[in-house]
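Lecture notes, continued. The same structure-token format from the folding unit now serves as the input rather than the output. Read the line below as a description of shape only.
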């Protein structure tokens, strides 16, 4: 019902404007959405943009997790990276896009680079916070039972880290798509969504701009759902009965002289 209300408001605003260049209505946008989806380069543009943003996101997550663990173990390393993280968060996406075009001698990897730069500081800081939030009593118990570093990571640190990653990813995924497409819009790599948006802007094709915007939202949501599903599967894998039986066995071990 609420969606219908806002669609009606949109249609009335478009009718009042009576200029499709300034504001196109939902029906015209829907027709353009279908037309855009049938274009020969549509699938290639979607796949290139998706691959670029996904590569930048996952690379940023991997590096942030590794460096976050090092920073958790080393306060010196954490302080060393602090100015760099502040700088990365302060520089505008447009500046990164221009620098990427200069440094990478082209724009084919532009969305990957910009998505990486935007996502990395967010995941890094949440990784350090997640490790800091690990239960001290569980760590003491793990040391008492002489659990390996791998088991400490799997059953203590990762469960503490996952809530932070879950919250962080919901923001980082949206930022990765917005910044990645914006970078493509600036660099105009051929066969990408950003390039298609730029062409629509050149020809004042407002319905196409709306149509591509809808596709960006849909792809962003689908990518977010996939990543959150992978995170949920990881969380489920941590609750295997093998470790619980091991804990019960260790906890139920009777030490001579305990009485």
């Amino acid at each position: 019902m609420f969606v219908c209300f806002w669609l009606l408001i949109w249609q009335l605003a478009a009718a009042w404007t009576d200029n499709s260049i300034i504001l196109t209505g939902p029906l015209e946008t829907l027709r353009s959405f279908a037309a855009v989806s049938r274009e020969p380069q549509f699938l290639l543009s979607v796949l290139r943009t998706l691959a670029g943003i996904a590569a930048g996101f996952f690379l940023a997550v991997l590096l942030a997790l590794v460096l976050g663990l090092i920073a958790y173990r080393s306060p010196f390393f954490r302080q060393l990276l602090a100015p760099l993280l502040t700088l990365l968060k302060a520089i505008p996406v447009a500046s990164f896009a221009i620098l990427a075009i200069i440094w990478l001698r082209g724009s084919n990897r532009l969305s990957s680079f910009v998505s990486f730069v935007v996502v990395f500081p967010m995941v890094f800081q949440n990784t350090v916070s997640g490790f800091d939030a690990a239960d001290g009593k569980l760590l003491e118990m793990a040391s008492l039972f002489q659990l390996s570093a791998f088991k400490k990571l799997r059953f203590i640190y990762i469960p503490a880290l996952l809530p932070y990653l879950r919250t962080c990813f919901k923001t980082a995924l949206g930022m990765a798509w917005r910044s990645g497409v914006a970078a493509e819009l600036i660099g105009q790599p051929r066969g990408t969504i950003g390039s298609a948006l730029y062409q629509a802007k050149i020809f004042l094709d407002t319905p196409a701009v709306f149509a591509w915007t809808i596709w960006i939202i849909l792809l962003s949501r689908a990518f977010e759902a996939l990543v959150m599903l992978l995170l949920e599967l990881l969380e489920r894998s941590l609750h295997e009965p093998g470790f619980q039986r091991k804990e019960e066995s260790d906890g139920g071990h009777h030490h001579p002289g305990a009485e």
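Point for the exam: Residues 242-259 have pLDDT under 50 and may be disordered.
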